[in-house]
Specification:
36% helix; binds the ligand CC(C)C[C@H](N)C(=O)NCC(=O)O; single chain; four-stranded antiparallel sheet; alpha+beta; 14 helices; six-stranded mixed sheet
Length: 494
Protein backbone atom coordinates (compact mmCIF):
# COMPACT_ATOMS: atom_id res chain seq x y z
CA UNK A 1 0.00 0.00 0.00
CA UNK A 2 2.85 2.32 1.03
CA UNK A 3 4.77 1.54 -2.18
CA UNK A 4 1.70 2.19 -4.35
CA UNK A 5 1.15 5.66 -2.88
CA UNK A 6 4.89 6.55 -3.19
CA UNK A 7 4.88 5.41 -6.81
CA UNK A 8 1.78 7.46 -7.56
CA UNK A 9 3.36 10.56 -6.00
CA UNK A 10 6.56 10.05 -8.05
CA UNK A 11 4.51 9.64 -11.20
CA UNK A 12 2.46 12.75 -10.43
CA UNK A 13 5.59 14.77 -9.70
CA UNK A 14 7.28 13.74 -12.90
CA UNK A 15 4.09 14.37 -14.89
CA UNK A 16 3.83 17.82 -13.34
CA UNK A 17 7.42 18.51 -14.45
CA UNK A 18 6.45 17.29 -17.91
CA UNK A 19 8.87 14.32 -17.67
CA UNK A 20 6.47 11.51 -18.41
CA UNK A 21 7.04 9.85 -21.74
CA UNK A 22 3.64 9.46 -23.37
CA UNK A 23 4.91 7.67 -26.43
CA UNK A 24 1.48 6.73 -27.75
CA UNK A 25 0.34 10.35 -27.57
CA UNK A 26 3.43 11.40 -29.47
CA UNK A 27 2.99 8.79 -32.20
CA UNK A 28 -0.72 9.62 -32.48
CA UNK A 29 0.28 13.24 -32.93
CA UNK A 30 2.71 12.26 -35.70
CA UNK A 31 0.07 10.13 -37.45
CA UNK A 32 -2.46 12.95 -37.28
CA UNK A 33 0.00 15.46 -38.72
CA UNK A 34 1.49 13.36 -41.46
CA UNK A 35 -0.20 15.27 -44.29
CA UNK A 36 1.41 18.47 -42.99
CA UNK A 37 4.77 16.70 -42.87
CA UNK A 38 4.41 15.59 -46.48
CA UNK A 39 3.41 19.12 -47.44
CA UNK A 40 6.48 20.51 -45.66
CA UNK A 41 8.68 18.05 -47.54
CA UNK A 42 7.02 19.16 -50.79
CA UNK A 43 7.84 22.79 -49.96
CA UNK A 44 11.47 21.95 -49.25
CA UNK A 45 11.88 19.73 -52.32
CA UNK A 46 10.49 22.52 -54.52
CA UNK A 47 13.61 24.58 -53.75
CA UNK A 48 16.42 23.67 -56.15
CA UNK A 49 19.15 23.85 -53.51
CA UNK A 50 21.85 22.32 -55.71
CA UNK A 51 25.20 23.10 -54.07
CA UNK A 52 27.30 21.92 -57.02
CA UNK A 53 25.79 24.43 -59.45
CA UNK A 54 26.92 27.92 -58.49
CA UNK A 55 24.17 29.48 -60.62
CA UNK A 56 21.72 28.00 -58.08
CA UNK A 57 23.37 29.63 -55.08
CA UNK A 58 20.47 32.04 -54.50
CA UNK A 59 18.08 29.07 -54.24
CA UNK A 60 20.41 27.41 -51.79
CA UNK A 61 20.54 30.59 -49.69
CA UNK A 62 16.73 30.67 -49.83
CA UNK A 63 16.65 27.06 -48.58
CA UNK A 64 18.84 27.95 -45.60
CA UNK A 65 16.49 30.86 -44.87
CA UNK A 66 13.52 28.48 -44.84
CA UNK A 67 15.31 26.24 -42.31
CA UNK A 68 16.15 29.24 -40.15
CA UNK A 69 12.56 30.48 -40.24
CA UNK A 70 11.21 27.05 -39.33
CA UNK A 71 13.50 26.71 -36.31
CA UNK A 72 12.80 30.28 -35.18
CA UNK A 73 9.07 29.54 -35.46
CA UNK A 74 9.60 26.68 -33.01
CA UNK A 75 11.14 29.15 -30.53
CA UNK A 76 14.60 27.64 -30.78
CA UNK A 77 17.65 29.66 -29.91
CA UNK A 78 18.70 30.14 -33.54
CA UNK A 79 21.99 31.36 -34.92
CA UNK A 80 23.11 31.81 -38.51
CA UNK A 81 26.83 31.24 -38.99
CA UNK A 82 28.99 32.55 -41.78
CA UNK A 83 31.41 30.06 -43.38
CA UNK A 84 33.10 32.41 -45.82
CA UNK A 85 33.28 32.55 -49.57
CA UNK A 86 33.91 30.29 -52.52
CA UNK A 87 36.38 31.23 -55.24
CA UNK A 88 35.11 30.24 -58.69
CA UNK A 89 37.31 29.14 -61.59
CA UNK A 90 37.05 32.57 -63.24
CA UNK A 91 38.42 34.17 -60.07
CA UNK A 92 35.12 35.61 -58.89
CA UNK A 93 33.93 35.00 -55.35
CA UNK A 94 30.51 34.04 -54.04
CA UNK A 95 29.35 33.40 -50.46
CA UNK A 96 28.91 29.89 -49.13
CA UNK A 97 25.41 29.28 -47.80
CA UNK A 98 25.24 30.12 -44.11
CA UNK A 99 25.05 27.32 -41.55
CA UNK A 100 21.93 27.35 -39.37
CA UNK A 101 22.14 26.23 -35.75
CA UNK A 102 19.42 26.05 -33.14
CA UNK A 103 19.16 24.99 -29.51
CA UNK A 104 16.12 23.64 -27.71
CA UNK A 105 16.62 23.44 -23.96
CA UNK A 106 19.70 24.04 -21.86
CA UNK A 107 19.09 21.94 -18.80
CA UNK A 108 22.48 21.01 -17.32
CA UNK A 109 21.01 17.85 -15.85
CA UNK A 110 20.16 16.51 -19.26
CA UNK A 111 22.27 15.19 -22.09
CA UNK A 112 22.62 17.43 -25.12
CA UNK A 113 22.22 15.83 -28.51
CA UNK A 114 23.33 17.65 -31.65
CA UNK A 115 21.51 16.66 -34.83
CA UNK A 116 23.53 17.30 -37.96
CA UNK A 117 21.93 17.37 -41.42
CA UNK A 118 22.08 19.10 -44.77
CA UNK A 119 19.53 20.61 -47.12
CA UNK A 120 21.59 20.96 -50.29
CA UNK A 121 21.02 18.45 -53.07
CA UNK A 122 22.69 16.90 -56.09
CA UNK A 123 21.73 18.16 -59.56
CA UNK A 124 18.57 16.77 -61.19
CA UNK A 125 16.87 17.48 -64.50
CA UNK A 126 13.71 15.89 -65.81
CA UNK A 127 15.52 15.01 -69.06
CA UNK A 128 18.04 12.90 -67.10
CA UNK A 129 15.31 10.28 -67.08
CA UNK A 130 13.10 11.24 -64.16
CA UNK A 131 9.54 9.94 -64.42
CA UNK A 132 8.29 13.03 -62.56
CA UNK A 133 9.47 16.63 -62.07
CA UNK A 134 12.37 16.27 -59.58
CA UNK A 135 11.39 19.51 -57.84
CA UNK A 136 7.72 18.70 -57.48
CA UNK A 137 7.29 16.10 -54.73
CA UNK A 138 5.06 13.40 -56.20
CA UNK A 139 3.55 10.51 -54.29
CA UNK A 140 3.19 7.22 -56.14
CA UNK A 141 2.29 4.00 -54.33
CA UNK A 142 3.37 5.32 -50.94
CA UNK A 143 6.70 6.70 -52.23
CA UNK A 144 7.50 10.42 -52.22
CA UNK A 145 9.59 11.19 -55.29
CA UNK A 146 11.75 14.30 -55.54
CA UNK A 147 15.38 15.41 -55.52
CA UNK A 148 16.67 15.53 -51.97
CA UNK A 149 13.62 13.73 -50.58
CA UNK A 150 15.77 11.09 -48.88
CA UNK A 151 19.14 12.87 -49.10
CA UNK A 152 18.62 14.67 -46.75
CA UNK A 153 15.49 16.81 -46.56
CA UNK A 154 13.00 14.29 -45.13
CA UNK A 155 15.36 13.10 -42.37
CA UNK A 156 16.12 16.72 -41.35
CA UNK A 157 12.39 17.48 -41.29
CA UNK A 158 11.69 14.29 -39.36
CA UNK A 159 14.09 15.46 -36.63
CA UNK A 160 12.42 18.87 -36.58
CA UNK A 161 8.98 17.27 -36.38
CA UNK A 162 10.15 15.01 -33.55
CA UNK A 163 11.07 18.06 -31.44
CA UNK A 164 7.89 19.84 -32.55
CA UNK A 165 5.73 16.92 -31.39
CA UNK A 166 7.15 17.03 -27.85
CA UNK A 167 6.54 20.79 -27.75
CA UNK A 168 3.04 20.58 -29.21
CA UNK A 169 2.01 18.10 -26.52
CA UNK A 170 3.63 20.23 -23.85
CA UNK A 171 5.99 17.39 -23.00
CA UNK A 172 9.42 18.37 -21.81
CA UNK A 173 12.17 17.27 -24.16
CA UNK A 174 13.99 14.38 -22.48
CA UNK A 175 17.34 15.78 -23.66
CA UNK A 176 18.50 19.18 -24.87
CA UNK A 177 18.49 19.19 -28.67
CA UNK A 178 20.74 21.23 -30.91
CA UNK A 179 20.60 21.40 -34.70
CA UNK A 180 23.44 22.11 -37.08
CA UNK A 181 22.15 22.28 -40.65
CA UNK A 182 24.42 23.05 -43.58
CA UNK A 183 24.11 23.58 -47.33
CA UNK A 184 27.37 22.31 -48.84
CA UNK A 185 27.45 18.63 -47.85
CA UNK A 186 27.16 17.34 -51.38
CA UNK A 187 30.31 19.17 -52.43
CA UNK A 188 32.41 18.14 -49.45
CA UNK A 189 31.01 20.32 -46.64
CA UNK A 190 33.16 23.26 -47.71
CA UNK A 191 33.85 25.68 -44.88
CA UNK A 192 32.32 23.47 -42.22
CA UNK A 193 35.59 22.05 -40.85
CA UNK A 194 36.75 25.55 -40.00
CA UNK A 195 33.42 26.33 -38.34
CA UNK A 196 33.52 23.14 -36.26
CA UNK A 197 37.02 24.00 -35.08
CA UNK A 198 35.97 27.57 -34.25
CA UNK A 199 32.86 26.34 -32.40
CA UNK A 200 34.56 23.50 -30.51
CA UNK A 201 34.47 25.42 -27.22
CA UNK A 202 31.31 27.36 -28.01
CA UNK A 203 28.40 25.64 -29.81
CA UNK A 204 29.85 22.17 -29.15
CA UNK A 205 30.94 22.81 -25.56
CA UNK A 206 27.77 21.39 -24.01
CA UNK A 207 27.08 18.79 -26.70
CA UNK A 208 27.37 15.21 -25.49
CA UNK A 209 26.44 13.28 -28.62
CA UNK A 210 26.10 13.89 -32.33
CA UNK A 211 23.42 12.14 -34.37
CA UNK A 212 23.47 11.98 -38.16
CA UNK A 213 20.60 10.62 -40.25
CA UNK A 214 22.04 11.07 -43.72
CA UNK A 215 22.17 7.50 -44.96
CA UNK A 216 19.90 4.51 -45.57
CA UNK A 217 19.10 0.98 -44.46
CA UNK A 218 20.69 -1.94 -46.28
CA UNK A 219 17.47 -3.90 -46.63
CA UNK A 220 13.87 -3.59 -45.47
CA UNK A 221 15.17 -4.00 -41.93
CA UNK A 222 15.98 -0.85 -39.91
CA UNK A 223 19.65 -0.29 -39.27
CA UNK A 224 22.22 1.60 -37.24
CA UNK A 225 25.25 2.75 -39.22
CA UNK A 226 28.74 2.60 -37.70
CA UNK A 227 30.99 3.52 -40.59
CA UNK A 228 31.17 5.63 -43.72
CA UNK A 229 33.73 5.75 -46.50
CA UNK A 230 35.54 9.00 -47.20
CA UNK A 231 36.12 10.45 -50.64
CA UNK A 232 38.91 12.01 -52.65
CA UNK A 233 37.42 13.77 -55.65
CA UNK A 234 39.68 14.76 -58.56
CA UNK A 235 39.63 16.93 -61.64
CA UNK A 236 42.05 15.86 -64.40
CA UNK A 237 42.19 18.40 -67.20
CA UNK A 238 43.87 17.97 -70.58
CA UNK A 239 44.21 21.10 -72.68
CA UNK A 240 45.37 21.23 -76.31
CA UNK A 241 44.43 23.51 -79.21
CA UNK A 242 43.38 27.08 -78.50
CA UNK A 243 39.79 26.28 -79.47
CA UNK A 244 37.56 23.40 -80.53
CA UNK A 245 38.36 21.95 -83.96
CA UNK A 246 36.57 20.19 -86.83
CA UNK A 247 37.31 16.46 -86.79
CA UNK A 248 37.27 16.33 -90.60
CA UNK A 249 39.26 19.47 -91.29
CA UNK A 250 41.77 19.02 -88.46
CA UNK A 251 41.39 15.37 -87.41
CA UNK A 252 44.71 13.59 -88.07
CA UNK A 253 46.78 16.71 -87.57
CA UNK A 254 46.41 17.00 -83.81
CA UNK A 255 46.92 14.83 -80.76
CA UNK A 256 43.50 15.14 -79.26
CA UNK A 257 43.03 16.06 -75.57
CA UNK A 258 40.13 13.64 -75.29
CA UNK A 259 42.25 10.71 -76.54
CA UNK A 260 44.93 11.56 -73.95
CA UNK A 261 42.35 11.88 -71.22
CA UNK A 262 40.60 8.58 -71.97
CA UNK A 263 43.98 6.81 -72.06
CA UNK A 264 45.05 8.07 -68.65
CA UNK A 265 41.62 7.39 -67.12
CA UNK A 266 41.91 3.81 -68.29
CA UNK A 267 44.91 3.33 -65.98
CA UNK A 268 42.93 3.98 -62.80
CA UNK A 269 40.95 0.75 -62.34
CA UNK A 270 40.80 -2.66 -64.02
CA UNK A 271 37.68 -4.29 -65.43
CA UNK A 272 37.55 -6.54 -62.35
CA UNK A 273 37.62 -3.58 -59.94
CA UNK A 274 41.30 -3.64 -59.01
CA UNK A 275 42.71 -0.16 -58.37
CA UNK A 276 45.79 0.26 -60.57
CA UNK A 277 47.26 3.44 -59.04
CA UNK A 278 50.53 2.40 -57.34
CA UNK A 279 50.37 2.51 -53.53
CA UNK A 280 46.74 3.55 -53.16
CA UNK A 281 45.56 0.36 -51.48
CA UNK A 282 48.66 -0.09 -49.28
CA UNK A 283 47.09 1.60 -46.24
CA UNK A 284 43.77 -0.28 -46.36
CA UNK A 285 43.08 -1.97 -43.02
CA UNK A 286 43.13 -5.77 -43.07
CA UNK A 287 39.78 -7.47 -43.45
CA UNK A 288 39.54 -9.44 -40.23
CA UNK A 289 37.78 -12.75 -39.56
CA UNK A 290 35.60 -10.93 -37.02
CA UNK A 291 34.44 -8.49 -39.71
CA UNK A 292 33.79 -11.32 -42.12
CA UNK A 293 31.52 -12.96 -39.53
CA UNK A 294 29.62 -9.70 -38.98
CA UNK A 295 29.08 -9.33 -42.73
CA UNK A 296 27.85 -12.91 -42.98
CA UNK A 297 25.03 -12.04 -40.58
CA UNK A 298 23.86 -8.93 -42.47
CA UNK A 299 20.39 -9.24 -43.92
CA UNK A 300 21.26 -8.43 -47.53
CA UNK A 301 19.84 -10.12 -50.58
CA UNK A 302 22.20 -9.76 -53.52
CA UNK A 303 19.54 -10.60 -56.06
CA UNK A 304 17.18 -7.89 -54.76
CA UNK A 305 20.04 -5.43 -54.83
CA UNK A 306 21.04 -6.49 -58.37
CA UNK A 307 17.47 -6.02 -59.60
CA UNK A 308 17.02 -2.73 -57.73
CA UNK A 309 20.03 -1.11 -59.37
CA UNK A 310 19.28 -2.86 -62.69
CA UNK A 311 22.50 -4.60 -63.70
CA UNK A 312 23.10 -7.98 -65.37
CA UNK A 313 25.88 -9.04 -63.06
CA UNK A 314 27.49 -7.67 -59.89
CA UNK A 315 31.26 -7.35 -59.43
CA UNK A 316 31.32 -10.09 -56.75
CA UNK A 317 29.25 -13.23 -56.53
CA UNK A 318 28.99 -13.59 -52.76
CA UNK A 319 27.45 -11.38 -50.11
CA UNK A 320 30.51 -10.93 -47.91
CA UNK A 321 32.82 -9.80 -50.73
CA UNK A 322 30.16 -7.52 -52.14
CA UNK A 323 29.44 -5.84 -48.81
CA UNK A 324 33.14 -5.54 -48.09
CA UNK A 325 33.69 -3.77 -51.41
CA UNK A 326 30.73 -1.50 -50.79
CA UNK A 327 31.73 -0.60 -47.24
CA UNK A 328 35.38 -1.15 -46.37
CA UNK A 329 37.47 -1.27 -49.52
CA UNK A 330 38.23 1.74 -51.73
CA UNK A 331 36.91 2.08 -55.24
CA UNK A 332 37.39 4.39 -58.22
CA UNK A 333 34.38 5.90 -60.03
CA UNK A 334 34.58 8.05 -63.14
CA UNK A 335 31.74 10.57 -63.05
CA UNK A 336 31.95 12.67 -66.18
CA UNK A 337 33.97 14.74 -68.60
CA UNK A 338 33.38 18.47 -68.73
CA UNK A 339 33.97 19.98 -72.15
CA UNK A 340 33.12 16.75 -73.96
CA UNK A 341 30.29 16.79 -76.46
CA UNK A 342 27.31 15.18 -74.76
CA UNK A 343 24.25 16.64 -76.47
CA UNK A 344 21.87 15.01 -78.92
CA UNK A 345 22.97 14.63 -82.53
CA UNK A 346 26.31 13.99 -84.17
CA UNK A 347 28.47 17.05 -83.62
CA UNK A 348 31.91 16.26 -85.12
CA UNK A 349 33.95 18.35 -82.75
CA UNK A 350 37.46 17.86 -81.36
CA UNK A 351 37.11 19.45 -77.90
CA UNK A 352 40.05 21.67 -77.08
CA UNK A 353 39.93 21.22 -73.31
CA UNK A 354 38.39 18.36 -71.38
CA UNK A 355 38.19 17.80 -67.63
CA UNK A 356 37.53 14.37 -66.19
CA UNK A 357 35.85 14.12 -62.80
CA UNK A 358 36.57 10.98 -60.82
CA UNK A 359 36.69 9.99 -57.19
CA UNK A 360 38.21 7.38 -54.93
CA UNK A 361 36.23 6.31 -51.87
CA UNK A 362 38.50 6.29 -48.81
CA UNK A 363 38.57 3.66 -46.08
CA UNK A 364 40.54 3.20 -42.86
CA UNK A 365 43.56 3.87 -42.83
CA UNK A 366 43.82 5.82 -46.09
CA UNK A 367 44.74 9.50 -45.94
CA UNK A 368 43.36 11.79 -48.68
CA UNK A 369 46.57 13.87 -48.72
CA UNK A 370 48.63 10.74 -49.45
CA UNK A 371 46.13 9.58 -52.07
CA UNK A 372 46.28 13.01 -53.71
CA UNK A 373 50.02 12.65 -54.26
CA UNK A 374 49.76 9.04 -55.43
CA UNK A 375 47.07 9.89 -57.99
CA UNK A 376 48.77 13.06 -59.22
CA UNK A 377 52.17 11.36 -59.61
CA UNK A 378 50.60 8.37 -61.34
CA UNK A 379 48.60 10.38 -63.88
CA UNK A 380 51.55 12.61 -64.73
CA UNK A 381 53.82 9.55 -65.17
CA UNK A 382 51.35 7.86 -67.52
CA UNK A 383 50.77 11.08 -69.42
CA UNK A 384 54.51 11.61 -69.76
CA UNK A 385 54.85 8.26 -71.52
CA UNK A 386 52.44 9.44 -74.22
CA UNK A 387 54.80 12.26 -75.23
CA UNK A 388 51.77 14.44 -75.85
CA UNK A 389 52.16 18.17 -76.50
CA UNK A 390 48.97 18.78 -74.53
CA UNK A 391 48.94 20.00 -70.93
CA UNK A 392 47.70 17.92 -67.99
CA UNK A 393 46.53 19.42 -64.69
CA UNK A 394 45.39 17.24 -61.77
CA UNK A 395 43.65 18.67 -58.71
CA UNK A 396 41.98 17.08 -55.69
CA UNK A 397 38.75 19.02 -55.05
CA UNK A 398 37.40 17.08 -52.06
CA UNK A 399 39.44 15.15 -49.50
CA UNK A 400 37.06 13.59 -46.98
CA UNK A 401 38.20 10.97 -44.52
CA UNK A 402 36.33 7.78 -43.58
CA UNK A 403 34.55 7.46 -40.24
CA UNK A 404 34.12 4.47 -37.93
CA UNK A 405 32.29 4.20 -34.58
CA UNK A 406 32.33 1.85 -31.63
CA UNK A 407 29.07 -0.08 -31.79
CA UNK A 408 29.41 -1.03 -28.12
CA UNK A 409 28.79 2.59 -27.12
CA UNK A 410 25.62 3.37 -25.17
CA UNK A 411 24.41 5.47 -28.13
CA UNK A 412 24.05 2.27 -30.14
CA UNK A 413 22.29 0.50 -27.27
CA UNK A 414 19.86 3.43 -27.15
CA UNK A 415 19.43 3.10 -30.93
CA UNK A 416 18.59 -0.60 -30.58
CA UNK A 417 15.95 0.13 -27.95
CA UNK A 418 14.39 2.91 -30.03
CA UNK A 419 14.24 0.75 -33.16
CA UNK A 420 12.71 -2.11 -31.17
CA UNK A 421 10.10 0.24 -29.71
CA UNK A 422 9.03 1.64 -33.09
CA UNK A 423 9.57 -1.22 -35.52
CA UNK A 424 9.41 -4.20 -33.16
CA UNK A 425 12.69 -5.66 -34.49
CA UNK A 426 16.38 -5.56 -33.69
CA UNK A 427 18.25 -3.21 -36.04
CA UNK A 428 21.12 -4.37 -38.19
CA UNK A 429 24.55 -2.89 -37.65
CA UNK A 430 25.79 -1.72 -41.02
CA UNK A 431 28.41 0.44 -42.68
CA UNK A 432 27.79 2.92 -45.45
CA UNK A 433 29.68 3.15 -48.72
CA UNK A 434 28.91 6.85 -49.17
CA UNK A 435 30.58 9.76 -47.46
CA UNK A 436 29.48 12.23 -44.83
CA UNK A 437 32.47 14.53 -45.08
CA UNK A 438 32.08 16.21 -41.71
CA UNK A 439 31.62 13.02 -39.65
CA UNK A 440 35.31 12.44 -39.11
CA UNK A 441 35.91 16.12 -38.28
CA UNK A 442 33.17 15.98 -35.67
CA UNK A 443 34.89 12.95 -34.15
CA UNK A 444 38.45 14.30 -34.28
CA UNK A 445 37.80 17.94 -33.38
CA UNK A 446 34.89 17.81 -30.93
CA UNK A 447 35.78 14.35 -29.55
CA UNK A 448 32.06 13.69 -29.10
CA UNK A 449 30.55 10.30 -29.72
CA UNK A 450 28.59 9.94 -32.94
CA UNK A 451 25.85 7.65 -34.13
CA UNK A 452 24.29 7.41 -37.55
CA UNK A 453 20.59 6.66 -37.30
CA UNK A 454 19.25 6.25 -40.83
CA UNK A 455 15.63 6.32 -41.92
CA UNK A 456 16.17 6.17 -45.69
CA UNK A 457 15.18 3.02 -47.58
CA UNK A 458 17.74 0.77 -49.31
CA UNK A 459 16.20 1.59 -52.70
CA UNK A 460 15.81 5.38 -52.37
CA UNK A 461 18.03 6.12 -55.37
CA UNK A 462 20.17 8.85 -53.82
CA UNK A 463 21.91 11.05 -56.42
CA UNK A 464 20.06 9.10 -59.10
CA UNK A 465 16.91 9.56 -61.20
CA UNK A 466 13.65 9.13 -59.28
CA UNK A 467 15.08 9.64 -55.79
CA UNK A 468 12.38 9.00 -53.19
CA UNK A 469 11.62 8.27 -49.58
CA UNK A 470 8.64 6.18 -48.64
CA UNK A 471 5.90 7.84 -46.61
CA UNK A 472 6.30 4.91 -44.19
CA UNK A 473 10.01 5.59 -43.59
CA UNK A 474 9.42 9.33 -43.26
CA UNK A 475 6.61 9.02 -40.74
CA UNK A 476 7.88 6.00 -38.78
CA UNK A 477 11.31 7.62 -38.92
CA UNK A 478 9.88 10.65 -37.11
CA UNK A 479 8.61 8.30 -34.41
CA UNK A 480 12.03 6.66 -34.26
CA UNK A 481 13.65 10.02 -33.55
CA UNK A 482 11.09 10.76 -30.84
CA UNK A 483 11.86 7.41 -29.23
CA UNK A 484 15.59 7.91 -29.66
CA UNK A 485 15.62 11.17 -27.73
CA UNK A 486 13.86 9.37 -24.91
CA UNK A 487 16.30 6.45 -24.96
CA UNK A 488 19.33 8.74 -24.96
CA UNK A 489 18.00 10.40 -21.81
CA UNK A 490 18.51 7.03 -20.11
CA UNK A 491 22.22 6.91 -20.85
CA UNK A 492 24.04 7.33 -17.55
CA UNK A 493 25.71 10.74 -17.19
CA UNK A 494 29.52 10.46 -16.68
C1 LIG B 1 24.69 7.84 -48.59
C2 LIG B 1 25.50 9.08 -48.35
C3 LIG B 1 26.26 8.95 -47.07
C4 LIG B 1 24.59 10.28 -48.35
C5 LIG B 1 25.30 11.62 -48.33
N1 LIG B 1 24.39 12.71 -48.26
C6 LIG B 1 26.08 11.83 -49.61
O1 LIG B 1 25.57 11.74 -50.68
N2 LIG B 1 27.35 12.19 -49.48
C7 LIG B 1 28.19 12.50 -50.58
C8 LIG B 1 28.74 11.28 -51.21
O2 LIG B 1 29.18 11.40 -52.39
O3 LIG B 1 28.79 10.20 -50.64
Amino acid sequence: MKCVSVCVVVLMMSAARGHSFRFNDLTDYVDKHQEEYVQALGDWVSIESDSSDVTKRAELQRMMGVVEEKLRGMKGNVDVMDIGTQMLEDGSVIPFPKVVTAAFGEDENKHTVCVYGHVDVQPARREDGWATDPYNLTEINGNLYGRGASDNKAPVLAWIHAVEAYKALDMELPVNVKFLIEGMEETGSNGLDVLVEAQRDAFFSDVDYIVISDCGWQSARPALTYGTRGNSYFYAQVEGPKQDLHSGVDGGAVIEPMTDLIAILDTLISASGQILIPGVTDAVANFTEEERKIYEEVDFDMETYRRTIGVERLMYDNKVDLLAHLWRFPTVSIHGIEGAFSGHGTKTVIPAKVTAKFSIRQVPNMEPAVVEKQVTDHLHAVFEQRKSPNKLKVKMIIGAKPWLADTKHALYEAGKRAVKRVFGVEPELIREGGTIPIARTFQDVTEKDIIMLPIGGFDDGLHSQNEKISRYNYIEGTKLFIAYLHEVSHIKKD
